[in-house]
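Task card 7
Instruction: Convert sequence to structure tokens.
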Amino acid sequence: MPFTHLIAAVVAAFLVTQLAIFTTTVYLHRALSHRALTVGDPAAVGFRAVIWITTGMRPREWVAVHRKHHAATDTLDDPHSPLQMGFWRVQLGNVGLYKRCASDESNVRKYARDLPPDRLDRIAFDHSLAGLGIGIAIIVVTMWMLGFGLLTGFVAAGLHAVLYVMLSGAINAVGHTRGTQPYSNSATNLQSLALITAGEGLHNNHHAAPTSARFSLGRGEFDPGWLLVRALVKLHLAHVRHEDVHLKTAA
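Output:
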């Protein structure tokens, strides 16, 4: 593969991964899991479609895993605690830990009973392989139309899968072992991680104020995901639950 094609594959993979990461943090995490904002139907359908074709995940399962994480943070019942399972098991094996918890119907019933499958789920969004197939086809055809060839598209799709899995693992692994702890919880803040995970690296802040749609709480902190939230609000596609920060724990 020519070097220029490899660079194109890396750039495409990074852009698709960032699209998936922004959708994950704003829609799956802030909106569905914590109800920090309400997303209107037009934007919600778009977000669901993006999650479907970039990750193949079912929103109610992601929500169930995340809510269980908050209910049992860094205890033996936490689905992906590096303090209990070790840093590398969570960083490298996060996808397996996620699938184990997500596939347990009792977890989904307990933690995501407010998100029953609807008509769109039954028709499309519950069919993970179909969504991933469509997503891969879009990447491959796009790269081919841009003159980089089919192989470049498949490489980009593979790199995207690795990047998304590794960044998701880092949020759980690094986000509970490396960085600062301005609030009294076991999560940590790492601004460098936040920059490439749409704000998720400000994990200590999030655990301190889980119903806040904004993760940047201190001076000098930057939450890229908040920019998307503000854009949705300005376009009247979303409504923030509360502008002020409601701390769960003391500083």
